[in-house]
Amino acid sequence: MSDGDVTAPTLVQPDRAFLGSLLSGGGEDLKRCFQCAACSVVCELSRADSPFPRKEMLWAQWGLKDRLLADVDVWLCHDCADCSARCPRGARPGDVLAAIRRESILHYAFPRFLGRWVNQPRFLPLLLLLPALVLGLAILARDPVERALGISAALDDRIVLPTWNQLPQSLLITLFGLVALLDVVAITVGVARFWRDMGATDRRAGRPAGGLAPRRLLPSLVSALGAIFRHDDFGRCTAERSRQVAHMAVFLGFCALVVVDLWVLSARFNPLILDGVVYPFGFWSPWKILANLGGLAVLGGGLLMVRDRLKSSRPGTYFDWAFLGILLSVVLTGFASEALHYARMDVVRQVAYFCHLVSAFVLLVFLPHSKFAHMIYRTVAMVYAERSGRHLAEGIHGRA
């Protein structure tokens, strides 16, 4: 045998701590897998050149942390449960991949300790207390700071943003603007490391640096965003079709709420607003209607998710429920604040509004470290898959 016929040995270094985290984080049936590949055959999203989740199940059994955390295919899975429903051994590959995605978010979280805090129940009181303290201190410090800086406390007669006068527009913009800036920093660091590691993983697997048929970044982004907005991949599910409706409702509703928030918060410098904006909006304002429809979509989709999880034999992990809980809290406290505003119940309305701000603060500040980060990492993985040419690979079921 010539030297060229000898395959170089590969050193396998299992990470037992990582394997333990997968087993305790929703992938407890992992060891039932005996590599029959039924999961890859039934998966409508699996690609012929790099089928999943069979290889991920093998890597997970071996505790190959580095391969799994930077594996783009882990994020191309939409957890439709087709593979879990048809697994002859009950290994539930979908749950295992969900556990891997959780570990990936924790691994790329910046700063990393926040990822641990957000995903451990014992830290929940602290995570709720911190934004409440920040908002409380902002209220207490508002008057002294305004006097020291010579800022008038009078509100603009056209822009009446606060549902509570102690939390005016300028204060909310400052607080939530700082939080958004911190989010951008944390997401940028995490995504940059994730993208780098995906490329390194492909190179180790022998794939060409540019992919099968490399595309430019912008067309890849447009294509991926189009698939996300249409929820194409969810539409291929057969075991749990209701997931498509629930996820689309939450996604589109959240987009509507973001648009309204950006419109209001940019009122002072938005060139499209010529006559100013009065807030709170009147009930029949187009913006109020859009916000209410968006809130109802998020509420309806969130409740569908809760129903599906309660009906399932596996109701989910704390990672799932913490996200659902805070998302529903934001919407419910928002509707409560609005209803109490119309009812002129000022004291109770202020309490509801404060709870709404705390919920929104928690959702936003811990976005890069909770399940909410799925929308970031899945989008990045889908863009990477488009750019590297995976979209051209013929699927197991003969699709392009």
Describe this structure in words.
The chain is built from 16 helices and no strands. The protein is an all-alpha fold and 400 residues long. It has two domains: 12-108, no CATH class; 112-390, no CATH class. The longest helix is centred in the middle third of the chain and has 36 residues, at 169-204.
Provide keyphrases for this structure.
single chain, disordered C terminus, 2 domains, 16 helices
Kindly summarize this structure in a few lines.
This protein is mostly helical.
Please render the helix and strand layout as text:
Layout: H1 16-24, H2 38-42, H3 54-62, H4 65-69, H5 72-76, H6 82-86, H7 93-108, H8 112-118, H9 124-149, H10 169-204, H11 217-230, H12 242-265, H13 286-311, H14 318-342, H15 346-365, H16 374-387
Mean pLDDT: 81
Strand-residue proportion: under 5%
Major sheet characteristics: none
How far is the first residue's CA from the last residue's CA?
A: 40 Å
- How many discrete structural domains? 2
Helix-strand topology string = HHHHHHHHHHHHHHHH
Rg over C-alpha atoms, rounded to the nearest angstrom: 24 Å
Structural class: mainly alpha
Share of residues in helices: 55-70%
Number of helices: 16
Unreliable spans: 1-6, 153-162, 394-400
Number-wise, the strands total 0
Overall shape: it is elongated
